[in-house]
Amino acid sequence: MRHPLTRELHDLLERGRDRQLRLAVTGLSRSGKTAFLTSLVNQLRHAGLEARLDLLPAAREGRLLGARRVAQQDLGVPRFPYDQAMSALDATPPRWPEPTRGISELRLVIRYRPSRRRLLGGETRELTLDLFDYPGEWLLDLPLLGHDYLSWSQAQQPTIGCERAGLFAVWHDAVSTLDPASEVDEARLAEIAEHYAAGLRAAREAGFSDLQPGRFLLPGELAGAPVLQFFPLPGIAEADRDTLAALPAQSLYATLARRFDHYLQHIVKPFYREHFRRFDRQIVLVDVLGALNAGPERFEDLSRALANLMQSFDYGRRSLLSRLFAPRIDRLAIAATKADHVTPEQHARLVGLLEALLAEPLKDLRFADVPVRALSLASIRATEAREVEQRGETLPALRGTTLAGEEVLMFPGEVPNRLPDAAFWARQGFTFTAFRPLPREGGALPHIRLDSALDWLIGDKLT
Amino acid sequence: MRHPLTRELHDLLERGRDRQLRLAVTGLSRSGKTAFLTSLVNQLRHAGLEARLDLLPAAREGRLLGARRVAQQDLGVPRFPYDQAMSALDATPPRWPEPTRGISELRLVIRYRPSRRRLLGGETRELTLDLFDYPGEWLLDLPLLGHDYLSWSQAQQPTIGCERAGLFAVWHDAVSTLDPASEVDEARLAEIAEHYAAGLRAAREAGFSDLQPGRFLLPGELAGAPVLQFFPLPGIAEADRDTLAALPAQSLYATLARRFDHYLQHIVKPFYREHFRRFDRQIVLVDVLGALNAGPERFEDLSRALANLMQSFDYGRRSLLSRLFAPRIDRLAIAATKADHVTPEQHARLVGLLEALLAEPLKDLRFADVPVRALSLASIRATEAREVEQRGETLPALRGTTLAGEEVLMFPGEVPNRLPDAAFWARQGFTFTAFRPLPREGGALPHIRLDSALDWLIGDKLT
């Protein structure tokens, strides 16, 4: 016979039995973080009623009873603005939610009935799900931890590719006049640092992704602080290490090196220490289609950025991260978002392309034994799939409303299922059109395979 | 032979030799902090050349050689935007600089020759002057440290005065429906907290000053974080203390109390610990004329706000602050700014009014043996004094250009030299007009008695 447990013992056991999960959502800017998190919360709140979550067994079997928001744990982290996002989506016409800046958090309590094989009575159970949303740009700073200022200066080649070089031209002209040994001129340094930050901002505006240091793009309260006023010195080499190290504290070189170190200690490390290493699971969103649309230079740049970003999840025994912070992420998802912006028969190719794009990081992750899954999804559908007849043939098409309000019926093109070659770029075979979200009818937001992502990320906790 | 010293050791030695001084500038918003700091830097940079600093002995005696900006110490604090401020002042037509938000810092090295009696050779000396600028609103939070959530709730009467009450009406209606013992509804709490913050913002817009908690008005990166989502509960009383303390953690009362504590620990205390307690000297700027112009309710409100603010400088042995942080400010100035907005013969009355307004805090400061001086000044002149003939009488007047670009010649009225009484308010004897800054001719900015403030704040270090 089972004995009733005291409340305290019960709580302890719940924790021991994995009743709490910290799930983080990230991606570079415009990858669709806000839409994903909004839809995720929306689906779980409407689970058991309007939400269509057939790929999540607990929902399919009618065991998922719903979710409610409760008070989050960390009072100093902004709450994820779910209500504002829903208001935007429910507006006439529907709008995409405002993107979040920085980190935000939301806590849900999910109610479910255990599956029959684990059922030991008629009672329901609860899973506390802490959701976090943070800029993927922050992860681009991880490689900095493996550098000192000298080696970072050498590793940084912000002028890779001729278009990027153009965006950094003003900075480059200015920095090339500097002598590392000269006494630092504060005002001039601030000016050149601003040229560098302006280059990063222009590069982001132009669709580039591999931008370091990440915090220069979202300075927040540190705008104007010296810790965000440094840049690589292009001319210096490893052979000069001893000479450079001997320069006085007031020299340009020593000043830049001090700021670089401060950035690592006070900006990069605290994020990993206070947030990252506490996440249990992670989904990384990637706007593959946007990059495909933007041409070869940006596509390669995205590939480089993702390789950098994924290093944060490669915590094999010898990785920088596991030596520093011992993170505990035990399951990772990588999702190509905006799948509703191509016709359904292209979805498998989209996953193929995502896997090709991440081939090297995925190899490392599998070698490090990190369970990872790649998928494609649309957090909030913006189109409907249609078929059109053309010269006797039936062709797939999308129907949607553009951001400008125009209703269109179109075929955006074929997604290559491996890395696009010169022939693809020469054809320019793909046209990405941005659509408005579809209006919500009644309860849950329309989506594609968000339930599949949910199954991978939390499904095993709902059995 | 001299050996190079590390920056820290150098700073330590300079401090020991009185060669370093940390001077902080504060004041409520619109009191003229940015103009003061801009002009102070400008005067010191032009000392010995164009600057007119006759009230500063080192300058009058030709011993002040000038100042240059050097790298500041704390890399995580934004640099005071001196160049941007000067660009605004040098624009055509001249504009007032953008107000700063949050804390900023600037380090000057001042070069001077010691006065004859201390001269031991022909050499020059240097004084390192660290300048800090921070919102006076942050000091309004000091009294919170003397409260717990219950006593703060009772002490807060955001609805004092009928006009303020109107601004908080939406919040007041919402909060009166709440039951402290009920389980907290996160979304509803966030909504009511937003009504409270909106009330504070509206009150500031309407010219009120005594607004707590100060960080609600400048949330920065904490926008949307639970730590900025609390408010006083009007209905609770000391007699309920035990009952309230026994409420469960999920109750509304316990949630609000937890956030209040978090605000004290993570927002109020760090400012005092990391910045305030390191300042050597302080000037507090007060826009007395603006308040005089705004009528009795706002004038009384300013008086209350200043009394609160000044508590931060009353570090007699038994004060809250000295128990917590042991600050070391050894000299304090209180300045009525914008003195150029009244005719010169009113300046003495302006100081009289400032002293009357601060009568109680000044008594406490003198009792605590803190050297303090009250003065009136104009950091950057916006008017010229004139005389006009009227019916055979010579009357003082001001000539200036309004913000709208209109040239005027006017007499703004008499400043009362003690607290204005009902008769003054009934007459509404004072009209404050905002003027454009005067264009700079060549070097230094035109000012009134900025040199007098400088003498009190740094003069003794230049002998």
TrEMBL record, chains A, B:
<dbReference type="InterPro" id="IPR027417">
    <property type="entry name" value="P-loop_NTPase"/>
</dbReference>
<dbReference type="InterPro" id="IPR007413">
    <property type="entry name" value="YcjX-like"/>
</dbReference>
<dbReference type="Pfam" id="PF04317">
    <property type="entry name" value="DUF463"/>
</dbReference>
<protein>
    <recommendedName>
        <fullName>YcjX family protein</fullName>
    </recommendedName>
</protein>
